From TrEMBL:
GO terms for biological process: D-alanine transmembrane transport; D-serine transmembrane transport. The chain crosses the membrane at residues 16-39, 51-73, 79-98. The keyword Nucleotidyltransferase does not apply. The keyword Ribonucleoprotein does not apply. The gene is Slc7a10. GO terms for molecular function: L-amino acid transmembrane transporter activity; neutral L-amino acid transmembrane transporter activity. This is AAA1 protein. Coiled coil: none annotated. Keywords: Membrane, Transmembrane, Transmembrane helix. InterPro entries: AminoAcid_Transporter.
């Protein structure tokens, strides 16, 4: 949210669209790479939809061209897009990777989650720790 607020201060909507479109295309490509890796490493798992591998490989070829062209034509915008993505790394380490957090940090995270749920009406808030139940 903080990164989004800072970006909104830029004031130029087209620049913001460029940041987000680069991030979207990067995430789409990584998702397709994950699909191919799973098809190769775990071929026996259930898949409700199965496509020929030629389709995602063709998509990746075009994706790589567009990504390299974007990096070449607008390196600053792409760099800022990568920085936006990397702002999630500390959040991952604080919220997910760090398993033995002090109780005060867990309470803070739970209260922020509950507050966000109430503010955005996205999920019925279930305030209180799961350990108490």
């Amino acid at each position: 949210c903080l990164a989004t607020l800072i970006i909104m201060l830029v004031g130029d909507t087209y620049t913001l669209i460029n940041y987000v479109s680069f991030i979207n295309y990067l995430c789409y490509g990584v998702t397709i790479i994950g699909l191919i890796v799973l098809r190769w490493k775990k071929p026996k798992i259930f898949r409700p939809i199965k496509v020929n591998l030629l389709i995602p490989i063709t998509y990746l070829a075009f994706w790589a061209f567009l990504l390299v062209f974007s990096l070449y034509s607008e390196p600053v915008v792409c760099g800022i897009g990568l920085i936006i993505i990397l702002t999630g790394v500390p959040v991952f380490f604080l919220g997910v990777y760090w398993r033995n957090k002090p109780k005060c940090v867990n309470r803070l995270i739970e209260s922020l989650t509950c507050w966000g749920q109430k503010l955005c009406f996205v999920v019925y808030p279930q305030c209180g720790s799961a350990e108490e139940e």
